[in-house]
Amino acid sequence: MVLGIGDGEIEIVLDRKEYSPGETIRGKLLFRLESPVRARGVKLALFGERKEMHKHYTGKYASSHPVFVRVFHEKQVIKPRKSFKDGDEVQFAFKLPSGALFDVKKRGVLADIFASLEPKTEWYISATLDIPLAFDISSKTRVNVKK
What we know:
The chain is mainly beta. Helices cover 6% and strands 59% of the residues. It is globular. The model has no long low-confidence stretch (mean pLDDT 84).
């Protein structure tokens, strides 16, 4: 393939369907590659982001657009400078922060109402196979965090 486009994919497999704040997320990466790939390494990230509406005022007109704000970002680099082939697996683990969800139970009735209107944080794990002089192979999966 030209410049690494379509050379393969990474599948992110998590050990469970749901996690609670403070728990460890364990999983593995499955490499599906057309041919062996020499890479600088695998970059992993756990991040939480929420969608917020930003308003802009120009004169008497107002407009708004959604912006994704990262509220947490942890990175790992594993298996540096290694050759990967089809079927290879890499294990990983991330610890979710204990404040991964907004806890409204200890507040009050009015605070509960306003907290339910706040944007919810969505959690993801991303994996990138860092290939020199070619397009990287990457994948992203959502992590379900429950109360």
